[in-house]
Amino acid sequence: MDFTAATERFVAAHFPGATTVIVGGSTARGERTASSDIDLLLIGEELFTGDQTSAASTHAFEDEVFEVFAYTAAGFAEWAQRGVDQHRPVIVHMLVEGCVVREGAELDELREHWADVLEAGPELTEVEAVFRRYVITDVLDDLRDAADPLERHVLASVLFERTAELMLLAEGQWLGTGKWLPRRLRVLETDRVEALSAPLLAGDYGTLANRVQAELDRAGGRMQDGFVR
Question: Does any domain span residue 224?
């Protein structure tokens, strides 16, 4: 599919006020699958009426599904900063790394600013680091004590996610949800990632617990006594 032409037709039909149009996700990377949609970032001052500055919506168009993230300049700045604060700057990655279909006057300045933010990486404060260690300690103890197979499976999945996030943030790397979490993890040392992921895949929860404890020790150790919410 010529996604550029299809995107231009979609934008002309539904969002004619967009001055910057960027395709992100698997389409931009050339990694589409049969179920892939087209992630679309739109920026423009004439996108909305009234005081609205942002919208996220899904549209079927010409046998494709478009996932649209639309913003005024102010709306983009607000939501981009929220993503950065949460360590998951999805629309910032779209802006900086996506395929430009329509280039507005605002694009160069936006890309320059937010590229610097991405390059700097997330800031893990001491308060957040302590909180994350506390959560991991709590779930780790629950996993070691659990006897019910379903409980153990759920706890192991939660523990893997929380530990992976702490590993990434401690190394100055952005987070991801769903399929993006293991993809983000691959920027770390292969042996270290394998040590955490292999027991999860094998259902070896005892070994997983030991690997989590090792990562917890690396981050400063267990956190329970003296923790204040």
Answer: no
Q: Give per-residue pLDDT as tens, 149-169.
A: 999 999 999 999 999 999 999
How many domains does the chain divide into? 2
**Close Cβ partners of 180 (under 8 Å, ≥ 6 residues apart):** none
- Return the structure tokens found at 111: 């890309």
pLDDT digits (tens, 9 = 90+) for 4-13: 999 999 999 9
107 and 168 assigned to the same domain = no
The pTM of the full predicted model, rounded to 2 decimals, is: 0.89
Structure-token pair, residue 163: 């530990």
| Residue 78, pLDDT above cutoff 60 | yes
Give the chain's radius of gyration (CA, Å).
21
d(CA 138, CA 131): 11
Q: Are residues 147 and 55 in the same domain?
A: no
Residue 175 belongs to domain spanning:
126-219
